[in-house]
Design brief:
This protein is an alpha+beta fold and 352 residues long. The chain has six helices and 20 strands. The chain has one domain: 4-Layer Sandwich (Metallo-beta-lactamase, Chain A), CATH 3.60.15.10. α5 runs parallel beside α6.
Length: 352
């Protein structure tokens, strides 16, 4: 889940977990990420829809006239728009072009079984073109759409890449409220419908070295706290699990431009993620960072000025925050990054 409940921790949570459990991975072998000629990112699910936002920069947006129609008995003529759907969740379709070859990956799958596949239909996206799914982490607002995808594809051997902690039972604990357990994906169910589960905590390549999955992200800023209210069921009991070590990102290097970094919730911290992407690729520049930055709510909003300073030092050409970034952080990012800031919404197509 990508929301930290209001009032759950306040300033005391900002220090994060004890220093001894902050992940500071040894410098990895540098990955020779193959540059691609272009990458297109289509937002299949996000928290908002905005059919009145104009296309600008790398973003092309659907208009009200672009959506298909459906029967609506109460309307004159018996029809109305089959509108795109937003959820508190995230999913993007990533298509990379290298020479005369194109490859397509689905990164996260949204909150409900029918949300992402419904938006695929409305946007005329063919799910059979997808070659693999990468799951940013195990929270259900990024994974429940696997059910609908399985139904749309039918039985087939289909890789789903994830971190071993993806399967953990987890719950949110808020003082004064009963703990709330989050839905957990069933490994057996995924395998029964034909998905090939690929687990790896380490960085890994996809598509002939053209796409990099970061694996666990080194937590080097010291101030991005993960998810302090989270617990996991381990060793027959609930125990603190703030790190969300399964949080991973997708990285593509666009020739002569730099890295496109795509996050799910950014529980590892958007600054940590961008720094890790650079560290894995020989300090290549960041061209764009897209996805959830997890800066919403009282436990995270005080971090916004520091995150903005560190992102500015990284210097992305485009900042495309969505999902769990939070409206205060969105406003601050828009003010700080000016023309580099691109609003994220369902149906947006980003071309780099």
């Amino acid at each position: 889940m990508c929301t930290e409940p209001a009032g759950a921790h306040g300033a005391a949570a900002l220090a994060g977990p004890p220093p001894e459990i902050w992940l500071d991975l040894e410098p990895p072998i540098e990955f020779d990420l193959e540059p691609v000629d272009a990458v297109a990112v289509t937002v299949l699910m996000d928290n908002i829809i905005d059919v009145q936002s104009p296309s600008a920069g790398p973003a092309r947006r659907p208009t009200a006239g672009d959506v298909p129609t459906r029967p609506v008995a109460t309307m004159v003529g018996g029809g109305g728009p089959d509108a795109l759907v937003a959820e508190h969740g995230f999913s993007v379709l990533v298509t990379v072009t290298k020479g005369d070859r194109r490859h397509t990956i689905l990164f996260d799958t949204g909150t409900t079984p029918d949300g992402v596949v419904g938006n695929m239909r409305r946007l005329e996206v063919d799910p059979s073109a997808i070659e693999a799914v990468v799951c940013s982490h195990g929270h259900y607002d990024h994974t429940a759409g696997l059910d609908g995808l399985a139904g749309a594809l039918g039985p087939r051997n289909f890789p789903v890449l994830l971190h071993p902690h993806f399967w953990r039972r987890r719950r949110l604990t808020v003082p004064g409220r009963e703990p709330r357990e989050m839905p957990t994906t069933s490994r057996r169910a995924l395998e029964d419908v034909g998905f090939e589960v690929v687990e790896d905590p380490r960085p890994s390549f996809l598509l002939d070295g053209a796409v990099l999955v970061t694996g666990e992200v080194a937590r080097t800023t010291g101030y991005e706290p993960g998810m302090p209210s989270q617990q996991a069921w381990l060793d027959d009991g609930w125990t603190s699990d703030p790190m969300v070590l399964d949080d991973q990102a997708l990285v593509v290097d666009v020739r002569d431009k730099g890295l496109v970094v795509i996050t799910g919730c950014g529980h590892a911290g958007v600054v940590n993620i961008c720094r890790w992407a650079r560290r894995l690729t020989g300090e290549r520049p960041v061209h764009a960072v897209i996805g959830g930055f997890h800066l919403n709510g009282p436990a995270f909003e005080p971090l916004v000025p520091r995150v903005l300073d560190d992102l500015a030092a990284i210097g992305p050409d485009y900042v495309v925050p969505g999902h769990c970034t939070g409206w205060r952080a969105q406003h601050a990012l828009a003010g700080r990054f000016a023309d580099a800031y691109v609003p994220c919404s369902v149906g947006t197509r980003l071309a780099f």
